[in-house]
Design a protein that fits this description.
By secondary structure, the chain is an alpha/beta fold. It is built from eleven helices and eight strands. The mean pLDDT is about 90.
């Protein structure tokens, strides 16, 4: 049975990281009750100015510092420190169901699988925003796209393909998923998309941002055009409402 490392990039996430880790520990217990599978949890502290690292340590996570603020770089830093044969990348404000790690390990037990993702369910308070995000979720699934709130990869293939692109400041998760999809097709292998489970990110951005900001910053055309520029995306990670 393959081992698994959970990698959580975190920038000023003391308010949300605790519940994320508590839910994750429940998933680890569920995994170990059904599989003989070692698991580790790594939090990459991406130059936080709050108690993110302290929260992570108190809840039993391995804390790895990454002083340069770049989520792709933080993901890759965590991957280099990980021991698992499966790398599971989870956002710091995202809640997982108890069975998620067991399902990932089962999916990655298929030698034809190079990795994949878990479905994401956004739950903002405003009905229009919920419908808008659900539209992109359905469109993404139809187009074979998956966000990085919960992605997982075969360790060997992850490093062969160079990990997440550190020149990208927004959408590095989608870009890597597309890249791995091409790799899987070329190798005659597949991606494992878990659609009957959902992880739930915090709705804090969408609940506090004005509607225009949500519409602009979630527009995939804009993301593609500006993803290599850091300035436009500072507010997505560094100034996100806490």
């Amino acid at each position: 049975m393959k081992s698994i490392s959970v990698i959580i990039p975190a920038l000023n996430e003391e308010r949300f990281l605790g519940e994320t880790l508590q839910r994750l520990h429940e998933a680890v217990r569920t995994l170990q009750s059904s599989h003989d599978c070692p698991a580790q949890v790594i939090v990459v502290d991406n130059a936080s100015e709050d108690q993110t690292a302290g929260v992570a340590r108190r809840l039993g996570a391995i804390v790895v510092p990454e002083p340069i603020r770049n989520i792709a770089r933080a993901r890759n830093t965590g991957a280099r420190m990980a021991e698992g044969k499966v790398l599971f990348f989870l956002d710091a404000d995202t809640l997982v169901p108890p069975s998620v790690l067991a399902r990932v390990v089962t999916g990655m037990g298929d030698p034809m699988s190079v990795g994949g993702a878990v479905d994401v369910q956004h739950c903002p308070s405003r009905a229009f925003v919920r419908l808008y995000l659900r539209f992109w979720r359905v469109l993404g699934r139809l187009g074979g796209m998956a966000q990085g709130a919960a992605q997982f990869w075969d360790r060997e293939q992850f490093f062969i393909q160079g990990g997440y692109d550190e020149t990208i400041y927004m959408g590095e998760d989608v870009e890597f998923y597309w890249r791995m999809k091409r790799v899987a097709r070329k190798q005659g292998r597949k991606l494992c998309y878990i659609s009957d489970l959902q992880v739930i990110p915090s709705p804090r951005r969408f609940d506090r941002w004005p509607l225009w900001k949500t519409l602009v910053w979630t527009n995939p055309v804009l993301v593609v055009l500006l993803r290599h520029r850091k300035g436009p995306w500072r507010g997505w990670y560094e100034d996100v409402p806490r």
